[in-house]
């Protein structure tokens, strides 16, 4: 009986088929824009695929190519402008294949030294963009949620270490109404309470309002407060909080200052907007997602710490089978010591290869192009009498409305464009800052662009806007 790991002629042919498919897909700048199907319909089309005897690689691969992949939406399509899309470079995608094929365990230097070295080369560049002081460094995670969670665990443990009494208190953190949903989810995971500060007239968290919130806390809540989370580019609108003024308050109040720049952090590479992040260099930790605006494949996030020792104290795991490394070459940087995951793939390798191949200047050009596309879209919207900008673009996000449309109109427009295989642009909800400040949380349904892919063209933008007439 043949082993699953044995090589025969069928596997060789399957390997060639898969490589051919991969090459064709990687070289395709405008892949088919699929659409989801109900689970019942997919089951009817493909049947049960996991059986006792197996259905064979050729059939399984055929079902994937003909049916299953067409029920997905490729994030790198140039007219995929919904959510925060992605646009991994061809070099990064190719090396993602190498990463998987190499079967390297990336938790410890003993097993992944060469690969971790490469990851750290890429990380040096990312850290340099933040301006954090010497000694700051980071590690690649599965995404922004795990990066935020890892940072807040480090923050909480550092707070507990300051005073033994803190171990008996339920932790409390502050963030803004505009913070990403993962911040609120992360607070639940670490069993911490969360307080929200209203954004100011610019939809930003600022130091003045943060200080007012802290001053209004009870004595016990002030003792429970351990961290503040600011945002370096909100997912919905690309808004960057007043990081410098928030940093002032955190330093004065001796609170951990975390900046969630999962989406916006890529813009640190763009000289035209770098000044908007002033204050990030004073953070205790920063989250950035290379799989968003640094053109890396999913899943690749990053968490950066000002003080790596505090992160290691919180995350380093002990075990008899983990402490047997005697060879000098086995000792080095262990990514597992600085974030919540022990088992991890070398998810930073594709980014490293792409950076090594293209150079950082190309990354700057690509990010600047996303910013430029947002301005181009805003100009076209202003020139269209049936459309209206909701606010000036922030980073690469553009919020706009079609005059006279209801939420149902936006929904039908989204579905039609996707069903036609033309584009994926989804509506969002928006509450005017003036309404929120007056206690009115009533929101409006509007349209939203998020530009990541430098292959998106002005013609793509115009064609999408034309579908709103």
Work out the number of β strands.
11
Biggest sheet strand order reads 1-7-6-5-4-2-3
The low-confidence parts are none
Q: How does the helix and strand content classify structurally?
A: alpha/beta
- Which whole number gives the mean pLDDT? 94
Radius of gyration: 24 Å
Share of helix, binned: 40-55%
Question: How do the SSEs run, as a string of H and E?
Answer: HHHHHEHEHEHHEHEEHEHHHEEHEHEH
Strand and helix layout:
Elements (H helix, E strand, L loop, with lengths): L8 H18 L12 H8 L10 H12 L21 H13 L6 H22 L6 E5 L2 H19 L9 E5 L4 H9 L3 E5 L9 H9 L3 H6 E7 L11 H11 L2 E5 L24 E4 L1 H4 L7 E5 L2 H8 L33 H10 L1 H24 L3 E3 L7 E6 L4 H13 L7 E4 L2 H5 L6 E7 L7 H9 L3
Parallel strand pairs: 2-3, 2-4, 4-5, 5-6
Antiparallel strand pairs: 1-7, 6-7, 8-9, 9-11, 10-11
Helix pairs in contact: 4-13, 5-13, 6-7, 6-12, 8-10, 14-17
Describe the structure concisely for a colleague:
Helix content is 43%, strand content 12%. The protein is α/β, with parallel strands linked by helices.
């Amino acid at each position: 009986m043949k082993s699953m790991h044995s090589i025969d002629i069928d596997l060789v042919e399957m390997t060639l088929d898969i490589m051919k498919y991969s090459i064709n897909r990687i070289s395709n700048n405008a892949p088919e824009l699929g659409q989801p199907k109900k689970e019942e319909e997919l089951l009817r089309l493909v049947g049960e695929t996991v059986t006792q005897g197996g259905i064979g690689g050729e059939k399984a691969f055929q079902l994937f190519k003909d049916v299953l992949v067409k029920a997905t939406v490729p994030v790198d399509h140039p007219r995929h402008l919904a959510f925060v899309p992605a646009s991994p470079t061809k070099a990064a995608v190719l090396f993602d294949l190498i990463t998987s094929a190499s079967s390297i365990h990336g938790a410890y230097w003993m097993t992944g030294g060469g690969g971790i070295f490469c990851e750290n080369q890429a990380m040096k560049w990312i850290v340099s963009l933040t301006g954090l002081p010497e000694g700051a460094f980071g590690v690649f995670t599965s995404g922004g949620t795990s990066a935020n969670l890892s940072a807040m665990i480090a923050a909480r443990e550092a707070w507990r270490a300051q005073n033994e009494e803190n171990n008996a208190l339920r932790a409390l953190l502050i963030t803004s109404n505009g913070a990403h949903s993962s911040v609120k989810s992360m607070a639940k995971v670490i069993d911490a309470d969360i307080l929200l500060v209203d954004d100011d007239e610019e939809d930003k968290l600022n130091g003045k309002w943060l200080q007012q919130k802290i001053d209004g806390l009870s004595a016990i809540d002030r003792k429970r407060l351990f961290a503040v989370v600011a945002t370096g580019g909100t997912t919905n609108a690309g808004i960057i909080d007043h990081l410098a003024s928030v940093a002032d308050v955190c330093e004065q109040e001796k609170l951990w200052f975390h900046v969630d720049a999962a989406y916006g952090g890529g813009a640190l590479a763009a000289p035209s907007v770098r000044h908007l992040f002033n204050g990030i260099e004073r953070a205790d930790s920063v989250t950035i997602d290379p799989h968003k605006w640094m053109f890396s494949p999913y899943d690749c996030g990053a968490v950066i710490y000002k003080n790596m020792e505090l992160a290691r104290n919180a995350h380093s795991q002990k075990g008899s089978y983990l402490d047997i490394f005697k060879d000098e070459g086995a000792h080095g940087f262990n990514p597992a010591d600085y974030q919540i995951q022990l088992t991890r793939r070398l998810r930073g390798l594709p980014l490293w290869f792409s950076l090594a191949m293209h150079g950082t200047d190309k990354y700057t050009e690509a990010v600047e192009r996303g910013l430029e596309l947002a301005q181009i879209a805003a100009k076209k919207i202003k020139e269209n009498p049936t459309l209206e900008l909701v606010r000036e673009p922030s980073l690469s996000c553009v919020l706009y409305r079609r005059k006279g449309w209801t939420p149902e109109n936006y929904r039908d427009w989204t579905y039609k464009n996707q069903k036609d295989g033309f584009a994926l642009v989804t509506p969002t909800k928006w509450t005017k800052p003036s309404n929120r400040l007056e206690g009115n949380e009533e929101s409006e349904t509007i349209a939203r662009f998020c530009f990541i892919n430098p292959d998106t063209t002005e013609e793509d933008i115009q064609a999408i806007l034309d579908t709103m007439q």
